[in-house]
User: Fold this.
Amino acid sequence: MICIDLHSHTTASDGALGPIELCHRARERGVTALAITDHDTVAAHHFLQQQPPIEGLQLVTGIELSTSWSGSEIHIVGLNFPLDHPDLERIIAAQGEARRQRSLHIATRLAKRLPDYSQETIFQEVLAGALSRQKSTTDSFILDESQIQIGRPHFAYWLVSKGLCKNADDAFKKYLGNNKIGNLKAFWPAMSQGVAWIRALGGTAVLAHPGKYNMTRTKLTALIKDFKFAGGHALEVQGSNSPKSQIDQLAYLCEHFELKASQGSDFHNPDYPWIDIGRLPPSIPSNITPVWNDWKINT
Ligand code: AMP
Ligand code: MN
Ligand code: MN
Ligand code: MN
Assistant:
């Protein structure tokens, strides 16, 4: 049996497990090929290159880039590119700087709403929280503040730790989600830029979780048309909880726009068992081509 999961996160971004812990969990759950796709970093892959391989688990390089398209934040998963590509560091540095600037702005906006905390305090405590989360794993994987990619989930943990929100979901509802003060989109490059970067690396550009953007069918079709025009390769047709109707719709769009299909759980945290590594439908719809068809995947 092969089980391929091409979307997952570690403590290098907003995941809860270290890279080795994630690999073991994947193997325990029957995953045979795994792409770690942290937000805007490949630090977990560099770390795992220095570790002994895990028997039966094939790693695929990956990254999830934040981009923007027509006022929406769009995630592009890049897969199967060489880790030593000379452009990779430059791309990650640009995204890291965008994340840093965005974090400073989020902290400024939160400080205006929360008079007990200054912008500086919020920013430093969010950073410290992200760094200390790495220590709660059993991995010896510790990044410094210039390497770790800070995102809204780190602000959510801070809001919860201060008793200002009940849980992360509440923090997104009140402060960080759509149309809230902490949701700033102006920092990301255009989606076409994200696709071009993945192509320049020689990788496969996948439109991540198309069903999560809450778009009308018309808008989603326009997005996919532009993604294809920009040189995108595949749609992520299924994740851990994809309804059959959504998979069918995305499979149809793959056929229509001559795109391949990817799949991935988007696993972040064992506390949410309904999104788990390897928890995926048994196969890709038969009318479309999987992204890994022409890769060297052990079967
Ligand atoms: P960012 O990378 O900073 O734009 O943050 C986006 C990340 O926040 C996503 O990748 C999810 O992991 C997480 N996220 C988005 N919405 C929610 C939510 N409602 N509750 C918890 N986490 C969320
Ligand atoms: Mn995330
Ligand atoms: Mn995403
Ligand atoms: Mn993701």
